[in-house]
């Protein structure tokens, strides 16, 4: 039975306030609201980000989002008034780490090595 796709998910305390923050972060409304306490965004290269209300787990998640230009992403984050101070770079990837208002960690990664996931 082959796996066809993956959904990364992050728990938040309150879906309505998180929804506003993630819409600013991602630059658009959620693509899907399958339940009142769930919002989902689909990405061009495949995969989804799901944000769901579950206060007892909020803030303990992490996800990596692949981007084509880390500097462009950093500029967008600064416009959103999100701290971009946690950046690193290696031979294969450049990263930028942020946290959402609930404490979940979100890494943006730009592959330098063409063999890395994009």
Automatic annotation (TrEMBL):
Residue span, VOC domain: 3-111
Protein name as catalogued: VOC family protein
Gene3D superfamilies to which the protein is assigned, alphabetical: 2,3-Dihydroxybiphenyl 1,2-Dioxygenase, domain 1 (3.10.180.10)
Chain segments annotated as coiled-coil in the UniProt record: none
Organism: Polaromonas hydrogenivorans
Any one Pfam family match given in the protein's UniProt record, by short name: Glyoxalase
InterPro entries for this protein: Glyas_Bleomycin-R_OHBP_Dase, Glyas_Fos-R_dOase_dom, VOC_core
């Amino acid at each position: 039975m082959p796996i066809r796709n993956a959904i990364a998910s992050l728990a938040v305390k309150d879906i309505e306030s998180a929804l506003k923050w993630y819409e600013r972060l991602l630059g658009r409304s959620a693509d899907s609201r399958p339940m009142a306490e769930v919002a989902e965004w689909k990405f061009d290269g495949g995969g989804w980000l799901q944000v769901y209300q579950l206060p007892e787990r909020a803030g303990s998640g992490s996800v990596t989002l692949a981007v084509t230009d880390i500097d462009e992403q950093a500029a967008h984050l600064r416009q959103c008034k999100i701290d971009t101070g946690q950046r690193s770079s290696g031979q294969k990837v450049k990263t930028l780490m942020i946290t959402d208002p609930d404490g979940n960690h979100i890494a943006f990664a730009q592959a330098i090595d063409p063999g890395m996931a994009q």
